[in-house]
Amino acid sequence: MRILRHRTQAPRYSSLGLSALMAVAVLAIAMLPAAAAEQARVIPAPTQDETATTEEPRTVVLAGGCFWGVQGVFQHTKGVINAVSGYAGGDKVTADYDKVSTGATGHAESVQVTYDPKQISYGKILQIFFSVAHDPTQLNRQGPDIGTQYRSAIFSANPEQARLAKAYIAQLNQARAFDAAIVTKLEPDHAFYSAEAYHQDFMVRNPTYPYIVFHDAPKLVELKRIFPDAYRSDPKLVSTARSSN
User: Fold this and answer.
1) pTM (predicted TM-score)
2) Residue ranges of the domains in the chain?
3) What are the Cα distances from residue 132, in Å, to 12, 166, 218, 223, 228?
4) C-alpha to C-alpha distance for 199 and 197, rounded to whole angstroms
């Protein structure tokens, strides 16, 4: 039975801050495996990575189930300039939550990650994506969410990103880093469309929302544990980035 996750109207945001979020996350982890199907895993870093030939920000679009949690993870990752929830894989006319939720649009709930290559590499972002942000062995689902809109996918921005992602997936599969084969799809040449405003910064603004407590907040605890050098306590919010433009 699929658990109802999203609201179609903006929720009432909690006033609790990061400390409360981390506290409930620790509680949720203590309740695993009942609390969440996606569990973080320590995996090797990629043996191949991009070359920082420019100081300009770079972007990659990642799909790993519910975009609330994926966005939250990368908002707390050092070197990430912005992380925006949205849709990729389908057409502009169907880039709407109600339509995407039918599973018939070709879209996946995705997060556009903009990062500073001087502070974090593409390879490190992929390592966090596979290790903490989601379970790349789940086909067309993540935890309680089922459908192609929750598939694991990388919407690369250029052929080099696609090549490196393919090489890293092969490396992880060969090393048997997971108990099953990685099913992440490589889907280049797709536009990204931002999601509705009420989906942005959702984890930060709703730390006590039940879905966040049991499925997403634990990812921040694991990010801090597995990647302490990449974790930052103050998230880069979409609302802040937009107001500064």
Assistant:
1) 0.86
2) 55-204+235-244
3) 28, 19, 9, 6, 12
4) 5
Structure tokens at 155: 């919407």
**Distance, CA of 31 to CA of 25 (rounded, Å):** 10
- Token pair, residue 230, equals 């990449």
> Rg of the chain's alpha carbons, rounded to an integer?
16
Which class is domain 55-204+235-244? Answer: alpha beta
Query: pLDDT tens digit string along 151-173?
Result: 999 999 999 999 999 999 999 99
Q: Are 57 and 115 in contact (CB under 8 A)?
A: yes
Q: Which tokens go with 62?
A: 């990642």
* Residue pLDDT, tens place only, 40-94: 999 999 999 998 767 799 999 999 999 999 999 999 999 999 999 999 999 999 9
Instruction: Enter the tokens of residue 74.
Output: 């990368």
Distance CA 26, CA 86 (A): 28
Residue ranges of alpha helices (H) inside the chain are 18-30, 67-75, 97-100, 122-128, 159-174, 202-205, 210-211, 217-226, 238-244
What does each C-alpha distance from 83 to 42, 77, 147, 182, 201 come to in angstroms? 23, 10, 23, 24, 9
Q: Are 177 and 44 in contact (CB under 8 A)?
A: yes
DSSP H stretches of helix in 101-184:
122-128, 159-174
Catalytic residues: 66
